[in-house]
Design a protein that fits this description.
three-stranded antiparallel β-sheet, about 280 residues, AraC family transcriptional regulator, alpha+beta, 11 strands, DNA-binding transcription factor activity
Length: about 280
């Protein structure tokens, strides 16, 4: 199944849309659209899927995603009510050629870099307040405020690309459709046994051809990607539930505790117990 195409609604002929998304939990909805998307997490924790990358998010995280870059934010009820300030706009929302003007080249560069997705990490309180207020403003004030936000983000040398250089949004291509089908399938099945042959068959490829295809497209092996999904699931359980580590390992897809501990430390630099303790310290500070 490839990601669904979304057409964000606009009101009163506006050239972009800004809104608060609030739910008990964000469900997995793999999708893409022609608009850039600026998303600030204002409440709750969960997992963010962008192209090839799977990462945890928390309040204060800010990302800018380019057009047609598949993505979704997902969470569980035990991770807290989910809320985000979302603004979606097209490249010409200020008129054709606006970002080609010399004084706005730095913004054009920011938007070009967002084709791989950009994470700004935990931004300042002032920046969070500016982005969070966007949905609350009138149309004219909203437009100037969005331009102000983009100007503030543009020089940010700390903006981190989210997807690997080998992944480029290309709606309708065979590569994109196959990768999307695999990612959707693995999101739903990674906590159980994952057989290479079954995943290859999902996209009608031989195991050998699929291995080469997946590594070229994702920059990692299928095993590495599944371990990433499982460890992120474990992180959610470690920080959102009191389950013992043995149960966390089992629910994340690991049948061997030592293997779980090894994989977790490889990806997070901490043992599972240390990761949980560090989270508890942060929440009590």
């Amino acid at each position: 199944m490839k990601p669904r195409f979304e057409q964000p609604p606009t009101l009163d002929g506006s050239t972009f849309v800004s809104y608060i998304r609030r739910e008990d939990a964000f469900g997995f909805g793999w999708h893409h659209h022609r608009e850039y998307e600026l998303t600030l997490i204002t409440e709750g924790t969960g997992t963010r899927y962008v192209g090839t990358t799977v990462e945890r998010y928390q309040p204060g995280d800010l990302v800018l995603l380019g057009p047609d870059l598949p993505h979704t934010f997902t969470s569980e009820p035990y991770e807290g009510a989910a809320e985000a300030a979302v603004t979606q706009f097209r490249h010409d929302f200020l008129g054709p050629g606006f970002f080609a003007l010399p004084q706005f080249r730095v913004l054009d560069d920011l938007l070009a870099r967002s084709s791989r997705g950009l994470s700004f990490g935990r931004v300042s309180e002032e920046m969070r307040a500016l982005v969070a207020r966007l949905p609350l403003l009138g149309a004219a004030a909203q437009t100037t405020a969005l331009l102000d936000v983009l100007c503030r983000l543009a020089p940010g040398a700390t903006a981190r690309p989210l997807t690997g250089p080998g992944y480029a949004p290309a709606p309708g291509t065979v590569v994109r459709d196959r990768i999307d089908a695999v990612c959707r399938h693995l999101q739903q099945s990674h906590t159980g046994p994952v057989h290479h042959e079954d995943v290859a068959a999902l996209v009608h490829m031989s195991p050998t051809s699929f291995s080469r295809f997946f590594r070229n497209a994702m920059g990692r092996t299928l095993t590495d990607y599944v371990n990433q999904l499982r460890v992120e699931t474990a992180c959610a359980l470690l920080t959102g539930t009191p389950l013992p580590v043995t149960e966390v390992a089992a629910r994340s897809g690991y049948r061997n505790l030592s293997n779980f501990n090894r994989r977790f430390r490889e990806l997070k630099g901490l043992r599972p117990t240390e990761y949980r303790a560090a989270h508890l310290r942060r929440t009590t500070e």
